[in-house]
């Protein structure tokens, strides 16, 4: 089909409705737009099914496939960057990340922002999209990046591994970085600036890449029970990918860390809970806690309301105590309710979280923040909780070369790395 101006405007209107009136109204607008296309009606469109990710998980219906084709064609028509993927770059590269740019959507998955999304992310993502200058070269710095593929019992994923120039015979720490929806490894590396911090030999940095065939918006499927369990699903796949790096590179096994943004942050929380024997500490930026959702509807509800996870729904089985955790959350985030940061902190630190005093500060970029440092008590783990005042759903202190970043600070990457290196596993 040819994407005309009317259809594009309808999609932009749907994105605005998503932010102002909610998913039901946005879904109705999308259905109306689809119904206006030749040979299509909106009546049979099932957004909950389509949100599962691929045509197969959407039930392989003819309409689902047609919608997927229309969205894909619209994206190709409105952006110049999709071709970069064939050259090993990012499908987000180019003049814009989406024909729906400017709609204010979220990179989050599984739960909320969109009836199309795999979880909360949206085909409208791109309002904070990465500019054309962000490509593989921008994240090389003075080390180099290799692209590898891990295949294990739970599946296969590509990943980027940044190897700093100081990498030699001495084992280095490893930081596993999980991107948010609509992002990829190149985008996330550019936006977080973690590779620059890895120089000259501070750590290795890995960027697992979610496939569009496993989630339409390239979100980690944090909300599906089968992906929250130790030994199964994406949790097992990512743990296996981490072990693959440990087997092939010189890594200090006492200093292996995992962090993520949004859907990636939610998955990082799951990995820390399910694999405390593998990771030493966790960083969660704008994410949800373990057990926050069990499917798309509950994910949408949790993200909007900030409701606490029901602990009897927690499917990730822990093999040890909670890990030291650093949490960042903007208090003006309209994608993930800020209360979810409190849930993560409370699970790990217990009653101590309520007693901890907050220190206030201001980042060089202008953002003010409150920071709680909660030392481990009674066998619990250390926790830092950063609340960034006036910030939305974006990586604090990030670079505009990547999507979903807030350069006004504070520098979440630098603070996470500091926290991580201060928390190796006990010998």
TrEMBL record:
Spans annotated as Disordered: 349-375
Annotated GO CC locations: extracellular region
Keyword entries, A-Z: Hydrolase, Signal
GO molecular function: hydrolase activity
InterPro entries associated with the record: AB_hydrolase_fold (IPR029058), Esterase_phb (IPR010126), Plant_Biomass_Hydrol_Est (IPR050955)
Metal-binding keyword on record: no
Gene3D superfamilies attached to this UniProt entry: alpha/beta hydrolase
Protein name from the UniProt record: Poly(Hydroxyalkanoate) depolymerase family esterase
């Amino acid at each position: 089909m040819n994407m005309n101006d009317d259809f594009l405007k309808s999609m932009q209107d749907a994105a605005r409705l998503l932010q102002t009136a909610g998913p039901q109204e946005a879904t109705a607008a999308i259905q109306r737009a689809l119904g206006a296309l030749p040979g299509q009606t909106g009546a049979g469109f099932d957004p909950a099914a389509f949100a599962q990710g691929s045509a197969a998980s959407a039930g392989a219906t003819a309409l689902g496939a047609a919608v997927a084709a229309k969205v894909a064609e619209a994206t190709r028509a409105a952006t110049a960057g999709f071709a970069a993927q064939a050259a090993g770059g990012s499908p987000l590269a180019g003049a814009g990340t989406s024909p729906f740019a400017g709609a204010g959507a979220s990179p989050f998955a599984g739960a909320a922002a969109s009836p199309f999304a795999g979880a909360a992310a949206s085909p409208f993502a791109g309002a904070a999209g990465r500019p054309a200058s962000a490509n593989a070269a921008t994240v090389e710095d003075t080390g180099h990046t290799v692209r590898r593929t891990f295949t294990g019992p739970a599946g296969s994923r590509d990943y980027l591994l940044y190897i700093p120039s100081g990498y030699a015979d001495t084992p280095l720490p490893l930081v596993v970085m999980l991107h948010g929806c609509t992002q990829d490894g190149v985008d996330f590396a550019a936006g977080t600036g973690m590779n620059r911090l890895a120089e000259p030999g501070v750590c290795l940095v890995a960027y697992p890449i979610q496939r569009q065939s496993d989630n339409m918006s390239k979100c980690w499927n944090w909300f599906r029970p089968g992906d929250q369990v130790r030994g199964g699903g994406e949790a097992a796949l990512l743990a296996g990918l981490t072990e693959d790096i440990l087997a092939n590179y010189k890594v200090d096994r006492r200093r292996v860390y995992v962090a993520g943004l949004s859907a990636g942050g939610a998955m990082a929380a799951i990995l820390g809970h399910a694999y405390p024997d593998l990771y030493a500490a966790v960083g969660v930026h704008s994410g949800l806690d373990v057990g926050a959702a069990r499917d798309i509807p509950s994910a949408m509800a949790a993200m909007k309301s900030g409701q606490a996870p029901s602990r009897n729904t927690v499917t990730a089985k822990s093999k040890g105590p909670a890990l030291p955790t650093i949490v960042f959350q903007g208090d003006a985030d309209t994608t993930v309710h800020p209360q979810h940061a409190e849930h993560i902190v409370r699970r790990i630190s217990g009653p101590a979280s309520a007693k901890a005093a907050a220190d206030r500060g201001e980042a060089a970029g202008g953002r003010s923040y409150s920071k709680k440092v909660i030392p481990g008590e009674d066998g619990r783990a250390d926790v830092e909780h950063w609340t960034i005042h006036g910030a939305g759903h974006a990586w604090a202190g990030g670079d505009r070369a990547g999507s979903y970043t807030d350069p006004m600070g504070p520098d979440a990457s630098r603070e996470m790395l500091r926290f991580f290196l201060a928390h190796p596993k006990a010998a």
